[in-house]
Write a structure and sequence with these properties.
The chain is an alpha/beta fold and about 220 residues long. Helix content is about 45%, strand content about 15%. The chain is built from 8 helices and 8 strands. Helix 4 packs parallel to helix 5 and helix 6 crosses helix 7. The chain is globular, with a radius of gyration of 17 Å. The protein binds BIS(adenosine)-5'-pentaphosphate. The site of BIS(adenosine)-5'-pentaphosphate (AP5) has 36 residues, from helix 1, helix 2, helix 3, helix 6 and strand 6.
Length: about 220
């Protein structure tokens, strides 16, 4: 049965880092709702402006918009064998939509949470830099590039996300506590969530996630 791999975690927990590695390993597309929304926010339309404003405020974009995004993206041919959800679901409503979707698409779901303490999250987010070309993720404190401001892989400039400033990070963490923590309880109570220590080095977190995926037939 083809799989949906779900990575849940607070802002900065390492969802994007790990989803990229898993995508390379298994050949499944990485579906980052944050990246899709950032792209949509560039459009000078009422929808683009609304998304941009919401993301800048550190709040969640509405479940209705996310439903459209997820339905459209996961119905693409490259998702047939399976896909990785990086940043979805984040609310109970989104979780229910995913359950319907998995049933309709006849896919099993592996839910994994990457847990990281709040003090660590701050450093990770404010220090994050991303390659504008290939998307490789660095951190000026924890995983610096060989040459400052330049991607090791392709020499392209590194960018700093506009919502990675201390004020937006505080708001994103607050939103996470309010909207996404209940979702974690929901998955935990139903026995479907596998928890992985996200404080470990990137490669060790990856090995643990891989072990979960390979020992699971999904739920
Ligand atoms: P999104 O882009 O998903 O941001 P986020 O959830 O805040 O998560 P991040 O991308 O900041 O962190 P990450 O967990 O991917 O960490 P990363 O791997 O980069 O969403 C942005 C916005 O879009 C939201 O605020 C919301 O408005 C909207 N949105 C998105 N999805 C939505 C949804 N479903 N519903 C409603 N709204 C939605 O790592 C971070 C840093 O740590 C990097 O520098 C990395 O190098 C470093 N690092 C990672 N792992 C390790 C490790 N193990 N050890 C040391 N350093 C590490």
């Amino acid at each position: 049965m083809s799989k949906i791999i779900v990575i849940i975690g607070a802002p900065g927990a390492g969802k994007g880092t790990q989803s990229r590695l898993l995508s390379e390993k298994y050949g499944y597309p990485q579906i980052s709702t944050g990246d899709i929304l950032r792209e949509m926010a560039q459009a000078d339309t009422p929808l683009g402006r609304k998304i941009k404003e919401t993301m800048a405020s550190g709040k969640l974009v509405s479940d209705e918009i996310l439903a459209e995004v997820i339905l459209a993206r996961t119905s693409q041919p490259d998702c047939q064998e399976g896909y990785i959800l990086d940043g979805y679901p984040r609310t109970l409503e989104q979780a229910h939509l995913l359950e319907d979707l998995a049933r309709k698409q006849q896919k099993s779901v592996v839910f994994m949470r990457v847990g990281v303490h709040e003090e660590t999250l701050f450093k990770r987010l404010t220090g994050r830099r991303t390659c504008a070309k290939c998307g490789e993720i660095y951190n000026v404190y924890l995983r610096p590039p060989k040459i400052e401001g330049v991607c090791d892989l392709d020499g392209a400039p590194l960018t700093h996300r506009s919502d990675d400033n201390p004020e937006s990070v505080s708001k994103r963490l607050e939103e996470y506590r309010q909207s996404t923590a209940p979702l974690i309880d929901y998955y935990r109570e139903s026995g479907r969530l596998v928890e992985v220590d996200g404080e470990l080095p990137v490669e060790e977190v990856f090995d643990k996630l891989r072990a979960v995926i390979e020992s699971s037939d999904g739920q």
